[in-house]
Specification:
Strand content: 15-25%
Low-confidence stretches: 705-719, 723-762, 772-777
Shape: globular
Number of helices: 24
Radius of gyration: 33 Å
Helix content: 25-40%
Distance between the termini: 129 Å
């Protein structure tokens, strides 16, 4: 018998041992493969990452490029301010962590020591503002308002202030050139958010946001930010495992941003701003017989456009504000004042974001639509004092009866009932309340052909589309609002809005006769913006070309060389023929000489035989508000458009202001005499400004300049939110080539999470309630 004991190993046990061996070998193979991948296959990648853990970046912002007017005047530039900054790296090398240094610094600056300490602490989830959310290796600014004496104390006592610097730095400044404000057109800068920094961390160059960056949030500063901000300089510091600096790995110098030349003329801009403000002030002194109180004139806008290119010569929006409020960071109090309902939202650019019914200024479109639908220019059309359509009476302004008149006369005297009749007749031909399968809809189609209901494409952010209330819009609007209308109708109210709700609850999707006739006179649910109307009347002036509006003309390098020109762009053509254009041209000239605007132009001494103007007045009704004043005009060179919310009639509210704008452009005095030496811009400026070798613009002295009107509310008027004081001399690019400044931006940027969204609270300012119908002259 054998002395070797039985192991009891069975076939099942053997299989289990084999499986276990295979698993162990597989794990060893996987581990070996992973080690080979990390240490051999991708060794260079991880070596670079490990090296990167010992590199820290210190950013030196680039000098931001300037925004210039058409002649080279600086609209947005840079100025030197003494900035005191603290290096955390140096502070941490002190025995007490730098507390004594910060205390001494606070005494010199006249600040509480606690405030200084809070500014240099690092932000995290548990640390509230104020704190520093940038790189801990980046010098942290404590104040941008240091005096020369304070800076000298710091620099002369370096042993008492290790790691503290006081040096001149380029800071954005909106200059108010020639007294022009331009807040909404220029825009502003604000700090980049943590989210924006993290999203672009893997990018390079202009696509990457750095923690210390200031980026464009509105206006030209936003749209052309990539051109303006330049490239920041970066110094790479080598640090040990404790974060102490042990050397420098590399340095890239900052590159100054390019300059932006605009088509704005600062002198004309000043005139337009002043006259818009004056027109609003005059309206507030005018009694409204309908509401038995003075007009409120709560907001307004004006545009001057070069009819041959679509370039903007001036653009004003009221109310306005001082854009320098944003420089160095806006205070909570100032931000609240700019976004509260009481301020009436001065951040809005009402030239591109304010929309209202156009009233009778729309009738040039209706005339074109009628001709396209087959109505004759040689025909005679009844102009009774009123018409009854769908059981509702639609009246002429002051119930005037002109009898049978031509379309030209209908435009000249702004006869509503002529256009009511045309629109009603066409509505019936399209099938009335039971439309044909393919209705002509000439009035709606023509409005779209004129560019309404869509953005013009102007190079400013957040432009709105306006509205053409055609059949498609009616159906969509009904689907979205039926439940609310029916709920309101159930209450049994008797107001105008209650009546509309009852009708819409049943068949709000239908294109009724009242909708069609209201649209023909620019009322009902129709909405337009001032820049849309300026584009339309520019096309009437230039022979029928719809240009895309632009503010920028060219991008210029810091040395004064052309980087790229922003050329005019043709978008569309007038839908009628030249005969129709000439017909409208003649009719709108008649508005100046004998029509609804005659008392403000021909009757006020305008030399129509020497400088021919054309116009169309409009007084739009808005439910629950006073009438909106519209005046759309053009000469052979310019289209000038003005609108004032709750400002009265078209000619009464805006007539004097627009006449004075033309007087300034062409050098016309109150008696109709023309002095070319006093003309600000008798013809649009086509050439770019010349530049000196150092990049500064060569500005020719003007024969006539506009002086500030102390009675007018400008950016220096304390009545405006954040009134500006006298601006210090701007810092030219040549003087700050070696100084840091601001950086990045994007078109229509999202609102930072810590700020309210403007679109909600400002809804009423952007889109008023519909009018009851009937647009007066």
């Amino acid at each position: 018998m054998s002395n070797i004991p039985e192991t009891g190993r069975t076939r099942r046990v053997t299989i289990r041992l084999v499986v276990l061996q295979i698993l162990v070998l597989s794990l060893l193979a996987t581990l070996g493969g992973r080690l080979w991948y990390l240490q051999i296959r991708n060794a260079s990648v991880y070596t670079a990452k490990a090296t990167g853990n010992h590199i820290r970046e210190v950013v030196e912002p680039a000098v931001r490029g300037e925004i210039l007017d058409a002649s080279g005047r600086i609209l947005a530039g840079n100025e030197t301010r003494l900035v005191v900054s603290v290096s955390r790296t140096s502070l941490l090398q002190q025995k007490d962590g730098g507390k004594a240094v910060l205390t001494r610094l606070a005494e010199v600056l006249g600040m509480p020591a606690k405030d200084v300490q809070e500014k240099v602490r690092l932000c995290d989830a548990k640390t509230p503002q104020p704190c520093w959310n940038g790189s801990p290796y980046q010098p942290i600014p404590v104040t941008k308002e240091a005096t020369t004496q304070q800076a000298m104390q710091i620099m002369e006592r370096r042993e008492d202030f290790p790691g503290i610097t006081a040096q001149p730095t380029a800071v954005r400044r909106y200059t108010g050139a020639e007294g022009a404000n331009m807040a909404q057109v220029l825009g502003y800068l604000s700090p980049v958010t943590d989210e924006e920094v993290s999203k672009t961390a893997d990018k390079t160059g202009l696509d990457r946001y750095l923690p210390a960056d200031q980026i464009g949030r509105a206006g030209l500063e936003s749209v052309y930010d990539r051109d303006l901000r330049g490239t920041a300089g970066i110094t790479q510091l080598e640090v040990d495992n404790l974060g102490r600096v042990i050397g420098t790995a590399g340095t890239a110098a900052p590159q100054t941003g390019n300059n932006l030349v605009t088509s704005i003329d600062a002198r004309v801009q000043k005139v337009v701003e002043d006259n818009l403000a004056q027109a609003m002030a005059d309206a507030r002194k005018t009694f409204d017989k309908v509401t038995n109180r003075n007009y409120e004139a709560d907001s307004g806008a004006a545009v001057v456009m070069d009819v041959h290119t679509g370039r903007i010569v001036a653009m004003a929006s009221a109310p306005t504000y001082d854009p320098n409020l944003w420089v160095g960071g806006i205070t909570g109090k100032d931000y609240q004042s700019l976004t509260s309902k009481d301020s009436n939202f001065p951040l809005l650019n009402r030239a591109i974001q304010g929309q209202s019914a156009p009233g009778s200024t729309f009738k040039v479109i209706s005339t074109t639509a009628a001709v396209q639908a087959g109505y004759s220019l040689d025909g005679r059309y009844d102009c009774p004092k009123s018409m009854t359509i769908g059981g509702r009476e639609f009246k002429n302004f002051e119930s005037e009866n002109f009898g049978a008149i031509s379309l030209e006369k209908a435009l000249e005297v702004s006869c509503d009932t002529v256009f009511y009749g045309l629109a009603y007749d066409q509505w019936m031909k399209d099938g009335g309340i039971k439309p044909k399968k393919d209705p002509g809809d000439w009035f709606f189609k023509t409005a779209h052909q004129f560019g309404l209901g869509a953005k013009t494409g102007i190079d400013l952010p957040s432009e709105v589309t306006g509205r053409v209330p055609d059949r498609q819009w009616k159906q969509s609007f009904f689907d979205n609002n039926k439940d609310a209308w029916c709920k309101q109708a159930e209450k049994g109210g008797t107001s105008f809005s209650d009546q509309i709700a009852r009708e819409n609850c049943v068949d709000g999707y239908q294109m009724r006769a009242g909708d069609a006739v209201n649209f023909a006179i620019g009322q009902g649910d129709t909405l337009v913006t001032p820049v849309q109307m300026a584009r339309i009347y520019s096309a009437l002036a230039n022979g029928g070309t719809f240009y895309r509006p632009t503010v920028a003309k060219a991008v210029i390098s810091p040395s004064g060389d052309l980087v790229r020109e922003i050329a005019p762009h043709e978008d569309a053509k007038f839908p009628g023929d030249q005969k129709l254009l000439s017909y409208i041209d003649q009719a709108t000239a008649g508005v100046i000489t004998s029509g609804t605007a005659a008392w403000k132009f021909a009757g006020a001494g305008w030399p129509q035989n020497k400088i021919e103007l054309h116009a169309k007045t409009g007084t739009a009704e808005v439910e629950g508000k006073q009438t909106t004043s519209w005046l759309t005009t053009y000469s052979k060179d310019y289209a000038v458009v003005m609108t004032i919310s709750q400002g009265g009639t078209g000619s009464g509210g805006s007539g004097d202001a627009i006449r004075r704008i033309y007087q300034a452009l062409y050098g016309v005095d109150d008696k109709g005499n023309i002095d070319n030496g006093k003309a600000l811009l008798p013809a649009p400026q086509t050439e770019l400004p010349k530049f000196n070798p150092d990049g500064t613009a060569v500005i020719k002295p003007a024969a006539y300049t506009v002086t500030a009107d102390p009675a007018r509310g400008t950016a220096a008027d304390p009545a405006l939110p954040g009134a500006a004081q006298a601006a210090p001399a701007p810092l030219t690019l040549s003087a700050v080539q070696d100084l840091p400044a601001a950086a990045p931006a994007f078109l229509d940027p999202p609102q930072p999470a810590d700020r309210p969204v403007l679109g909600t609270a400002a809804g009423d300012a952007l889109e008023p309630n519909r009018g009851p119908g009937r647009g007066r002259a």
